[in-house]
Specification:
The chain has 225 residues and is mainly alpha-helical. It has two domains: 52 residues, Arc Repressor Mutant, subunit A (Orthogonal Bundle), CATH 1.10.10.60; 120 residues, Tetracycline Repressor, domain 2. Helix content is 65%, strand content 0%. This is TetR/AcrR family transcriptional regulator. InterPro entries: Homeodomain-like_sf, HTH-type_TetR-like_transc_reg, HTH_TetR, Tet_transcr_reg_TetR-rel_C_sf, TetR_C. Keywords: DNA-binding, Transcription, Transcription regulation.
Length: 225
């Protein structure tokens, strides 16, 4: 696969290509955090990254293509799951990781910008869904281990438990403006663990490949999970 036909950022894991990709994605993230999606401009990103405009346009093509690659990189660079030996301990570790990320001035602003863009940009929404799917799938085995230990009922939806852990923190980030601290993270983890133990997240029996409220014959709208 040559550089012209490859997907953005997938050519040669080392060397100049990797350095250029890292610089461009750093610049894109900085711009998103500072100015939002509406003002993200490939020429400005090239200037910030100190690379040629033609390189950025050739490899990423569009703003949405660049954001998609940024989200892919963020998912790849995220810390692996923590396994503490208990469901509550694992969910608390997950919640605190999310809390630290969203409370960081740069990262919090970046996520706000991407989530806002995902409400009206289908390709950005798809990239955001893929980012969360990767992160949820990384942590879901912690819930399966809790099932195996007998902490939560058989048939618990492992992915839903992880989503429920971080959901209150994203709510604070996007709507309430309440402080995002470790206490908030711990409360979210405790609530999700208690609900999981009570059987609140049974695995759905809906057809494979569909989401709640979405049939196979109905186009899936872009939305934030």
């Amino acid at each position: 696969m040559d550089a012209e036909s490859a997907e953005p950022g997938t050519v040669r894991p080392g060397g100049r290509t990797a350095r250029v990709r890292a610089a461009v994605l750093q610049a894109a993230g900085d711009s998103l955090a500072e100015r939002g999606f509406a003002h993200l401009d490939l020429a400005d990103v090239a200037r910030r990254a100190e690379v040629g405009k033609t390189t950025v346009y050739r490899r990423w093509g569009t703003v949405t293509g660049l954001v998609a690659d940024l989200l892919t990189d963020m998912a790849e660079q995220s810390l692996p799951r923590t396994e503490t030996g208990s469901l509550l301990g694992d969910l608390r570790a997950n919640a605190r990781l999310v809390q630290r990320t969203l409370a960081d001035p740069r990262q919090g602003a970046l996520f706000k910008a991407v989530i806002a863009a995902a409400t009206c940009e289908p390709k950005t929404a798809e990239a955001l869904h893929r980012f969360y799917d990767i992160r949820v799938s990384e942590w879901a085995p912690c819930v399966q281990q809790a099932i195996d230990r007998g902490e939560v009922p058989e048939g618990t939806d492992t992915h839903e438990v992880i989503r429920a852990t971080s959901a209150p923190l994203y709510y604070r980030l996007l709507t309430s403006g309440d402080r995002l601290d470790e206490a908030a993270a711990d409360r979210a983890a405790e609530a999700a663990a208690a609900a999981a133990r009570a059987g609140a997240y049974p695995r759905s029996t809906r057809p494979s490949g569909t989401r709640p409220g979405v049939s196979r014959s109905t186009p899936r709208p872009a939305h934030v999970p």
